[in-house]
TrEMBL record, chain A:
Keywords: Cell membrane, Membrane, Transmembrane, Transmembrane helix, Transport. It is a multi-pass membrane protein. The keyword Acetylation does not apply. It is found in: Cell membrane. It comes from Marinobacterium maritimum. Belongs to the binding-protein-dependent transport system permease family. FecCD subfamily. This is Iron ABC transporter permease. Its main location: membrane. The keyword Transmembrane helix applies. The chain crosses the membrane at residues 15-32, 44-62, 68-89, 96-119, 186-213, 225-247, 256-274. Pfam families: FecCD.
TrEMBL record, chain B:
This is Iron ABC transporter permease. The keyword Disulfide bond does not apply. SUPFAM superfamilies: ABC transporter involved in vitamin B12 uptake, BtuC (SSF81345). It comes from Marinobacterium maritimum. Pfam families: FecCD. The chain crosses the membrane at residues 60-80, 92-115, 127-149, 161-185, 205-228, 249-276, 282-305, 317-337. The keyword Cell membrane applies. Belongs to the binding-protein-dependent transport system permease family. FecCD subfamily. Keywords: Cell membrane, Membrane, Transmembrane, Transmembrane helix, Transport. It is a multi-pass membrane protein.
Length: 282, 341
């Protein structure tokens, strides 16, 4: 009994929490760094909503096999994120504009998802729980499904940390170092979208991790340091794991959805940060 | 302004006509189509029993509620945009709708979870009567929170919007969580409500919202003057010797009241409050009072038509009006964002 509890339930769930947290936080760090925008996190730029939206579309309208969900999520996330940045572009990317365009894109995705939820009827409850975000009941099967979408990009990002450091400089300086800035920017953004999509397909749209973690790590370590992206991964993994443990504490009859815990932890933090640091944001 | 210009006059005459026409259309169209004669017969009480039931009990209250809710959201949006001097403000974006929804959801959940005796007032129509009050409390708290966090007196438009977006995200996550926690038996109803739906709204919803409509309209009429002043620069206003903070709070309260009561009966319908004021300002440049009134009429028209489309376009199903409004509103929002300097 204890063996089953440990091997079949707790262990895969813990590993998933670590993986999802690392993916979301690293993706947030990459997006914030590459766009030099302290608010460019996967959730605020519509990447999360876009990934979730395409997954919901495929699962309700086409009843596609779950193995395709990560790919669909990547496509949806890249589409929505790309659209957000294109729409927000006006002589550069102003943080506020990116957030507002992201809000709009997310709103469209949510509207489409809600419309489909209304149609799908019977599955609505299940989908709704997924949309609240959480990894309860996920096992080895899901872990196997998404690990190829999260772990290789993570390793790749760590291996390419030197390139990332160049992207943080301004474009002219990057070019003078002999680096094709725009190509690497695209590579990193795609890696970030891939990780996010993998995390979203398994855990639903869990918010705030990708936004808040890079802000915390910036206090600990310089963005320019090679260890900064890995630090994001570690801290994100820790944060999501503790959020998941909090979520399943036996206080309520049911588990608290993970998205609620991260919102409770991350939201106030973010608001405080905005108060303190508004000059850089606005 | 002493003399009404041509444009406002045309709007004041044409819009009520168009609204009347849409109202008639939404009484005629639906799962069972009725001819205008049948509708008139039903309205005057001489039609068939089935026609009576469909027109009086189902379609008329629903269409009226759509119009009233649209008016609420549009007025609220207009006031918020004038207050924050921000063309992108809207009760949804500023977190007011999210706060109101969260409070309403908490009330419903509490009503379902409390033991029967304690929840006497939190069931059925009693609960419905409490909902606007609860939603108002939630909306006011959210608005006050956003206002304080964005730096109260030193309120700059961008700061307000960003704080609102973040607060809305937190509140929405809490609400989704609250619903998911409550159990899956009710999710279909609640998903529909959260999408902003007018399905199955009968007369008592009208009676619940009507006092708030009157209060909101009175409030809106009272704040026309302060609103005109608040549209100026901070320095200009201060030089007039006006207590800025207090006026802003009053104006914010009226906008919140309008949005929260609408959320309580129809769910958080977004983007009406964003789009409509722009149309009104484009139609009647200049005079604030006219713009306010035209906004109210346009909002009523928009939600009325959106609800009609939602329940007739894809027939066996019904698209929530909030989904349609978002699909109409988001392109407009993005266009406005592009226009921003």
């Amino acid at each position: 009994m204890q063996g089953i509890l440990f091997w079949e339930l707790r262990l895969p769930r813990t590993l998933l929490a670590l993986l999802v947290g690392a993916a979301l936080a690293t993706a947030g760090g990459i997006m914030q760094g590459v766009t030099r925008n302290p608010l460019a996190a996967p959730d605020l730029t519509g990447v999360v909503a876009g990934a979730a939206c395409l997954v919901v579309i495929l699962s309700t309208l086409a009843s596609v096999d779950a193995a395709w969900f990560p790919l669909a999520g990547i496509a949806g996330g890249a589409l929505a994120g790309g659209l957000t940045f294109v729409l927000a572009w006006k002589n550069g990317l102003m943080p506020v504009r990116v957030v507002l365009a992201g809000v709009a894109i997310s709103a469209v995705c949510v509207a489409v998802m809600t419309g489909l939820l209304v149609f799908s009827g019977a599955e609505a409850g299940e989908l709704f729980f997924w949309l609240a975000g959480g990894i309860s009941g996920r096992g080895w099967e899901q872990l196997e499904q998404v690990i190829i979408w999260i772990a290789p990009p993570l390793l790749l990002v760590v291996a390419l940390a030197r390139r990332f450091r160049v992207l943080l400089l301004d474009d002219a300086m990057g070019r003078s170092l002999g680096v094709s800035v725009s190509r690497w920017r695209l590579v990193f953004m795609l890696l970030a979208v891939g990780m996010t999509a993998g995390a979203v397909t398994v855990a639903g749209p869990v918010g705030f991790i990708g936004l808040v973690v890079p802000h915390i790590t910036r206090q600990l370590l310089s963005e320019q340091s090679l260890g900064w992206l890995p630090l994001n991964a570690v801290l994100g993994a820790l944060l999501l794991l503790s959020a998941d443990v909090l979520a399943r504490l036996p206080v309520a009859v049911q588990e608290i959805p993970l998205g609620v815990v991260t919102a409770l932890l991350g939201g106030p933090w973010l608001i405080l940060l905005m108060r303190k640091d508004f000059g850089r944001v606005g | 302004m002493n003399r009404i210009g041509i444009a406002p006059l045309a709007c004041w005459i044409l819009l009520p006509l168009v609204i009347g026409l849409s109202l008639l259309l939404s009484l005629c169209l639906g799962a069972a189509s009725l001819s205008p004669e049948q509708v008139f017969a039903a309205l005057t009480g001489t039609g068939s029993e089935h026609g009576q039931r469909v027109v009086w009990d189902l379609r008329l209250p629903r269409a009226l509620l759509a119009a009233v809710v649209g008016l609420h959201f549009a007025l609220s949006g207009f006031i918020l945009q004038a207050l924050s001097r921000n063309p992108l403000a809207d009760p949804g974006i500023l977190g007011i709708s999210a706060g109101a929804s969260l409070a309403a959801v908490l009330l419903v959940v509490a009503g379902a979870m409390l033991p029967a005796g304690a929840s006497l007032y939190l069931q059925g129509e009693q609960l419905l009567a409490w909902l606007p009050l609860g939603a108002l409390a939630g909306g006011v708290l959210a608005a006050a929170g956003v206002y304080r966090l964005s730096g109260a007196g030193r309120l700059t438009p961008l700061r307000l919007i960003l704080t609102g977006v973040v607060c809305a995200a937190v509140l929405n996550a809490l609400m989704t969580g609250g619903l998911a926690l409550w159990g899956q038996a009710h999710t279909e109803t609640l998903v529909a409500w959260l999408a902003g739906s007018l399905h199955g709204r009968e007369w008592h919803y009208i009676w619940v919202i009507l006092p708030w409509t009157l209060l909101g309209l009175t409030g809106a009429a009272l704040i026309v003057k302060p609103l005109g002043v608040l549209r100026l620069n901070d320095e200009q206003v201060l030089s007039l010797g006006v207590n800025l903070g207090r006026w802003r709070l009053l104006v914010l309260l009226v906008a919140t009241l309008l949005a929260a009561s609408a959320v309580a009966v129809a769910g958080p319908i977004g983007f009406v409050g964003l789009v409509v004021p722009h149309m009104a300002r484009w139609l009647v440049p200049g005079a604030l009072l006219h713009q306010l009134g035209i906004s109210a009429l346009l909002g009523a028209l928009l939600v009325l038509v959106a609800d009609l489309a939602g329940r007739t376009l894809v027939v066996p199903f019904e698209l929530p009006v909030g989904v349609l409004c978002a699909l109409i509103g988001v392109p407009a929002f993005l266009y406005l964002l592009k226009q921003q300097p």
